[in-house]
Amino acid sequence: MLTAATDETTATGWAAVAEWWESWGQPVGVLLAIVGAFVAFWIVRAAIGRVVHGVVSGVKRRADAADTEALSNSPLAQVRVVQRTRAIGSVLNTLAAWVIGALALILILSILGVNAASLVAMAGFLGAAAGVGAQGVIKDFLNGLFMVFEDQLGIGDVVDLGEASGVVESVGIRVTQVRDVHGTLWYVRNGEIVRVGNESQGWARVIIDQAVPYDVDIDRVQERLLEIATRMSEDPAWLHRIIDKPEVWGVESVSSEAIVIRLVVRTKASAKYEAGRELRRRVKLGLDDLGLHLPSMQSIVVKGMEQSK
């Protein structure tokens, strides 16, 4: 009798649970799927962030640098590791969000009673829609992946993307964010980027095309320019930012008003603009010592300014 009563109680309990699940099972299941998706994304994001932080911290320790900006005094490869790791971390976070969101949607549809055949049909429909109407998104996605994994750019790089140029602040699956010198933040679709000019990789070259009077002693001016640049390269403040001996490439152009002489200095990529401004200041002061009255550039047409040696 006791066993029969116990079985009856158990059956009643299971019936109550079944009745409750029939009434509230779907809403609860959907809620759990949504919460689970957020928890999964948080875990994946935390794991990616921990890996990125570990790589960056390891590079800083090896470079004995207190912050990422100080890595400019370290070998370039270490700077690239930091920038590329952060860019890849940004891309992986975005990719994880899309994947977890898609899985959560499929799970929710299953809870709501949509059968597997319908899910397959929906996937086929979405695939067809993607092939017709989402070609741009797919192109953005693939181009973004290739740019990051080929190390075309990284967070912190100074780049020229054609319509926008500046410092890369974020690299996503679909959009790359670039802040220009005026502070404007540009959102550039990855699929629309057909060329990348990266000024933060390898080395850079400061080029100064200095106009001097037509009747000047060319050899004397060239010697003076080379002396100015050489002194700057030997200055302790610039010793580690100028990576090669300065060169005077000679006369770049001649007109009735002036002669243009080209001076070039190779620097670290991160020091190009700062070194260029300092070198121009020193050139001006050095030519003042020679008593030269420099001609107005408004009356001079300089040819070949963007040509290489």
Automatic annotation (TrEMBL):
It holds the Pfam family MS_channel_2nd. It is found in: Cell membrane. InterPro entries: LSM_dom_sf, MS_channel_C, MscS_beta-dom_sf, MscS_channel_2nd, MscS_channel_C_sf, YbiO_bact. Gene3D superfamilies: 1.10.287.1260, 2.30.30.60, 3.30.70.100. GO terms for molecular function: mechanosensitive monoatomic ion channel activity. Residues 137-198 form the Mechanosensitive ion channel MscS domain. Keywords: Cell membrane, Membrane, Transmembrane, Transmembrane helix. It is a multi-pass membrane protein. GO terms for cellular component: plasma membrane. The chain crosses the membrane at residues 24-44, 90-113, 119-138. Residues 212-292 form the Mechanosensitive ion channel MscS C-terminal domain. Its main location: membrane. Belongs to the MscS (TC 1.A.23) family. This is Mechanosensitive ion channel protein MscS.
